[in-house]
Amino acid sequence: MIGFLKSGSLESGFVVRLLSDVNTETLRIGDFVVIEGNLYDYFGIIEDLSISSSTEDVFFDPPDLDWQKEALKGTFIFSEAAVTPYLMVEKATGNVVSVKTIPQHFSRVKRALGEDLAKIFGKSKEKSFSIGTPLTMEEPVYISLKKLSERNNAIFGITGSGKTFLARIIFSGMIKQNVSSLLIFDMHNEYGQSAKSEKGGTKGLKALFPDKVKVFDVAKENRDADEWITIPYKDIKAADVEMLSSILNFSDKSSETAFIIERKKSTGWLEYVFSLEGLGEKELAEEAEKVGVNASSLGALIRHLLKFKKLGFIKNTNEESSIEKILMYLKNGISVVVQFSGKAASSPLAYFTVANVISRRIHEEFVNMDEEVRKKTRVMIVIEEAHKLLSTESKEKNIFGTIAREMRKFNVTLFVVDQRPSEIDAEVLSQVGTRFVLQLMDEKDMNAVFQGVGGGSKLKKILRTLQPREALLFGYALPMPIAIRVREYGEEFFKEMRNTSSPAIEEGEKDLY
Amino acid sequence: MEQIGEIIIINFPIVIAEGKKGNLPPLGSIVKTDSNFLAIVVSHSVESKIPGRTPIAYWKTARELENEQPQTFELMRWLFQMVVFGTEENGNPEVSLPEKSVEIHSLVFPADIGIVKKLIDGKSFFNFVFNADENLFPQRNEIILRLLRDYFKTVPEEEKKKERVKVFSNLSKILRNDYPSLKKLMEGVKI
Lengths: 513, 191
Prior knowledge:
The complex is a heterodimer of chains A (513) and B (191). Chain A is an alpha/beta fold and 513 residues long.
């Protein structure tokens, strides 16, 4: 027992008077506590800790010996914990419901034990997966991967906070338990065969699940890739170009020119634009007149779009687009990691072009998919640096805004990995069902992750205390918010992933393999 | 057990006993009567045995005077005043004012250290003392300080810290609105 219930309300939370023998240094914001009522056990989180005194007199003539200080504890000086209750468990039935009643004065408060935690975050039948432990406990916290796959999700955190580390663990769980096919746009090549880690190299998803993951790359330099991506000119639309206007240094005029040419030349518009490369001023003016655009705008468009040509994987070819292959894998329950090596490494132009073109194709495919086929198919698209695609200015110019808003019903969801949540459009953020928030430093980013979340200001206090590889989890896939230490991504984890006694592919999914 | 006094005046719960010459029980000490009443010694006094006679000054030390005129001392009596606060039942103190007064000429003895420890370790004795009328305990803090000092002398060195924390934790609940008094008591037992 750490204390007793002193005061509080459902709206403002509870105040727990801590017992004088409880060392406040052993309690931490984010700790999980249980308030023992008569009919219910109330589960809550320590949102704040305070030390107080009953009188200022103590500080005019403070105690100077240890035993004197000790003797004053609990009366003249005392400690309190602010606890926000989230769930209550009916003692008689074990039913878990959100908090609707309030325990009585002096109800005993204790730290949650493993068995308490198991009631809330225990292993369930719903494809649950352990992703870590509470900050001051060793009991595993399980998350429902099934629920996770039903909505959009996000991992937010600054560089070095452990975003990729956490993402790899979650994705491993999804792949192992056949929850969803993942399409990971892997900007820094961290999810494929191998990945960088603090200790050097570590295994990527392909290494853990060789039969369930395919690695694509836009450049041949990547020897680990299973296949290479080629995007035919015909698959690039003017809208893709418009989305990349800031990267291509495009003006609105150039975008407009691209759209006009696309209307005239249909899927051959890009081939047409590239065919004009090297034309003299007179010839260019004649072409501009033919398609009904301004000659200087056309010249500018050609110059800007040549950057596409240099990427190497956008080609004038009638070969089958690798997008079709990616779609086939995804529909068959195989996850795909798209990597960017060679000239495309760390190239926003390559990354956003590929991500947008492939995702747009998936959007079309799933919207028009037969209902019965769709029921068996679930795809989660993982994008990094998402704020560049989902900002208020750009969300309408690319497919990701649409996917975030509308694709849940078509079994396509987004998984955003980002460090600047404040730059993501508020409406898009509101569509994020479950959030995994690691360390954030910027106040705007902290405010953004709690936008529209009840009790966000209290959770923010927890967020401020997080260390690298610690995360605050809340939202749709979790019964209540919880701060965790992310589990180790090492040998023990790899062994668990290799263990074939884990959930088998379910009936109805078998025909996909 | 050595008898230390005999009750000769009662204004219950205040009672006065005559003690032995020059050997009164310490202020703040806990005593009990032959009828198991418990009391705390709150003051000492010395007066002439002959009504109306008042000692005069001889300008000598007490020892010199006693050697020269021992009868002067034989005509005096040594008194100590106590406040009755409860009774002892089977070795356990019961802190509450008894419904009947202590009898005149009851004999007075020092209380067992076990009883003293139980009183000091609990809250009811201090509650009684600090919630009683000030006229009953004119020098309350000093009396309690005397009691505590003498008590802690009996506590083994290795247990002293723990015992002090325990006693003063209880006292801090009772004196929760009077930190200066509590601090004075804590400082007092340091010595």
